[in-house]
C-alpha cells in the first residue's frame, strides 16, 4: 500500500504577500525536487497548522513532517511542538507526525550557517529577533562560531535581550558597520527596528555611538544554502509518539523564578552560576558536564540529590546555595508543575533513562539487543530508542566506573532487525562514541557521601 506523505513548512509573523509568496514558492519547489512523491505546503501560525494537520489526516495521509521555518528553539517553536504533541495524543490521530528542528539546533548547525554567511573582512552584525529569555543563548553560542574564523569581524546581536548595539559596540574596532537581519525574511521588524530612523532602531543607536552604519536587508530565506539546511532538518525530523515525553528539564529555584536576572552571575537561562545545580542521578551529571565542556551550559558546581520530586523542589526552593535542578519533564507534568520548566533538553543533550516514554516492540527489541551485548551494564549505562518499522534511532551513554570515562553516541539503525542494530550499537559505543572525555575528579558531589 502506498502511504500518502506530506510536508508542512510553518512560518510565524506577519510576512507580507510579496515576501511570503516567493519564499513559499522556493521551499515548495525545492522540496518537490527532493521529495517528488509528497504533498508540500506552507502554513502560517499554529491555528493554520492545526487545521492543516486535521485536513491531511481526514484526507488519508499516513505521515506528515512539520518543519518550522524558525531560527532557534524559542517560544514559537514551543508553540508548534505543543500543537504537534496534542494532535498526536488525540484519540483519533490518523497519521504519524515528525517534527523538524529549527535552523540553529546544535553546534553543527551553527558551524554550517557560519560557513554560509562567510567571512566578513569589514565589521558586520547579524541581528536576530531575540526574546530576552533562555533561547537567546543560541545567539551567544552562534556568535562564538565566528570567532573561530580567522580575520573575521562578524558579530551576532538581538533586538531584545542582552546582545544589543551597545554591548556589540564595545567589541568593534572599525567605525563602519554593516547590519544584516538574522531572520527568515527582511520584513517589518528589519525595516523598522534594524534599519529604521527611529531612535530605538539598531541603526540609530549605533550612529549615536559614532558609527557609520549601512544596512543590507536580505532575509536568510533568500539564500539557497540556508533553505537547504531547513530541508535537511525536514529529512531528519523526529517521530512524535502518543504519550511519549521522556525529555528532561531545568527548574530554577523559586526565588530565582521571580527575577531570573536577579544577580550579575545569572546567565540567559536565569541560572546563577555561583549556585549549585542539582541533578537527580549520575547520568544527568555526566551529560550536563559534557554540555559545560561544549560551552552550551553554565559552569555551575553539580551535586547529585535523591528523593521524591516534590521534596527535591522544596529543598532547592528553600536553600539559598541551590540555583536549580535537572528533573524529568514527565514528572513535572504529573505534579502539574510543567510551567516551572525553564529549559527542556533533547535526547541528544541528555540521554533519557532506560525505557523512558511509551516503548513499542521495535524499540524494546533494539534496547534488548543493546543490553544483551553489554551483558553486565553498570547502573549509569543507558540506551534510548525511538522509532518503528519505518525508521529507528538509538542514543546511548556508556560509563566506565574503573577509569571514570564515559562515551555517548547516536545512530540511525535498520528497523527490520532491531535486535542486531542494538547489539552493533553496543559494540560501537563500548569502543568509544562521539567523545570520551571526563573523569570522576570531583566535578560534582553526591549528597550521600
Give a short synopsis of this structure.
With 449 residues, the chain is an alpha/beta fold. The chain contains 15 helices and 18 strands. A 6-stranded mixed β-sheet has the order 14-10-13-11-12-18. It has a 5-stranded mixed β-sheet with strand order 2-1-3-4-9, with helices on both faces. A 4-stranded parallel β-sheet has the order 6-5-7-8.
Distance between the termini: 59 Å
Question: Beta fraction of the residues?
Answer: 15-25%
Structural class: alpha/beta
Give the second-level CATH assignment, the architecture of the largest domain. Answer: 3-Layer(aba) Sandwich
Number of domains: 4
Describe the overall structure:
This protein is α/β, with parallel strands linked by helices and 449 residues long. It folds into four domains: 115 residues, Rossmann fold; 116 residues, 3-Layer(aba) Sandwich (Rossmann fold); 101 residues, D-Maltodextrin-Binding Protein, domain 2 (3-Layer(aba) Sandwich), CATH 3.40.190.10; 70 residues, Porphobilinogen deaminase, C-terminal domain (Double Stranded RNA Binding Domain, 2-Layer Sandwich), CATH 3.30.160. Helices cover 35% and strands 22% of the residues. The longest helix is centred in the N-terminal third of the chain and has 18 residues. The radius of gyration is 23 Å and the shape is globular.
Amino acid at each position: 500500500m502506498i502511504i500518502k506523505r506530506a510536508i508542512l513548512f510553518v512560518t510565524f509573523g506577519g510576512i507580507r504577500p510579496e515576501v511570503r509568496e516567493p519564499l513559499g514558492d522556493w521551499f515548495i519547489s525545492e522540496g518537490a525536487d527532493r521529495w517528488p512523491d509528497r504533498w508540500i505546503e506552507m502554513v502560517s501560525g499554529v491555528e493554520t497548522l492545526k487545521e492543516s494537520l486535521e485536513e491531511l489526516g481526514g484526507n488519508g495521509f499516513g505521515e506528515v513532517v512539520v518543519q518550522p521555518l524558525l531560527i532557534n528553539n524559542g517560544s514559537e517553536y514551543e508553540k508548534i511542538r505543543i500543537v504537534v504533541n496534542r494532535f498526536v495524543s488525540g484519540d483519533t490521530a490518523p497519521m504519524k507526525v515528525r517534527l523538524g528542528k529549527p535552523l540553529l539546533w546544535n553546534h553543527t548547525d551553527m558551524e554550517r550557517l557560519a560557513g554560509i554567511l562567510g567571512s566578513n573582512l569589514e565589521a558586520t552584525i547579524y541581528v536576530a529577533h531575540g526574546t530576552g529569555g533562555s533561547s537567546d543563548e543560541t545567539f551567544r553560542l552562534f556568535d562564538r562560531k565566528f570567532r573561530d574564523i580567522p580575520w573575521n569581524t562578524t558579530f551576532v546581536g538581538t533586538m531584545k535581550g542582552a546582545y544589543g548595539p551597545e554591548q556589540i559596540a564595545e567589541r568593534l574596532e572599525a567605525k563602519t558597520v554593516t547590519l544584516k537581519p538574522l531572520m527568515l525574511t527582511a520584513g517589518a521588524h528589519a525595516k523598522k527596528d534594524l534599519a529604521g530612523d527611529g531612535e530605538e532602531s539598531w541603526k540609530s543607536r549605533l550612529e549615536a555611538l559614532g558609527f557609520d552604519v549601512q544596512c543590507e536587508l536580505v532575509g536568510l530565506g533568500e539564500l539557497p544554502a540556508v533553505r537547504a539546511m531547513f530541508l535537511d532538518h525536514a529529512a531528519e525530523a523526529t517521530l512524535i509518539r502518543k504519550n511519549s515525553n521522556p525529555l528532561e528539564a531545568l527548574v530554577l529555584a523559586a526565588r530565582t523564578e521571580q527575577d531570573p536576572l536577579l544577580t550579575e552571575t545569572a546567565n540567559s537561562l536565569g541560572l546563577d552560576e555561583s549556585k549549585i545545580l542539582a541533578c537527580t542521578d549520575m547520568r544527568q551529571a555526566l551529560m550536563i558536564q559534557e554540555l559545560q565542556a561544549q560551552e552550551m551550559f553554565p559552569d555551575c558546581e553539580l551535586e547529585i540529590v535523591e528523593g521524591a520530586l516534590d521534596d527535591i523542589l522544596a529543598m532547592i526552593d528553600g536553600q539559598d546555595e541551590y540555583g536549580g535542578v535537572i528533573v524529568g519533564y514527565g514528572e513535572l507534568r504529573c505534579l502539574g508543575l510543567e510551567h516551572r520548566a525553564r529549559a527542556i533538553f533533547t535526547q541528544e543533550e541528555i540521554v533519557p533513562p532506560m525505557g523512558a516514554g511509551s516503548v513499542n516492540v521495535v524499540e524494546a527489541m533494539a534496547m534488548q539487543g543493546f543490553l544483551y551485548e553489554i551483558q553486565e551494564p553498570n547502573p549509569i549505562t543507558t540506551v534510548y530508542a525511538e522509532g518503528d518499522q519505518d525508521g529507528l534511532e538509538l542514543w546511548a551513554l556508556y560509563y566506565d566506573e574503573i577509569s571514570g570515562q564515559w562515551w555517548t553516541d547516536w545512530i540511525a539503525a535498520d528497523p527490520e532487525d532491531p535486535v542486531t542494530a542494538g547489539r552493533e550499537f553496543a559494540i560501537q559505543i563500548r569502543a568509544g562514541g562521539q567523545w570520551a572525555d571526563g573523569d570522576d575528579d570531583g566535578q560534582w558531589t553526591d549528597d550521600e557521601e
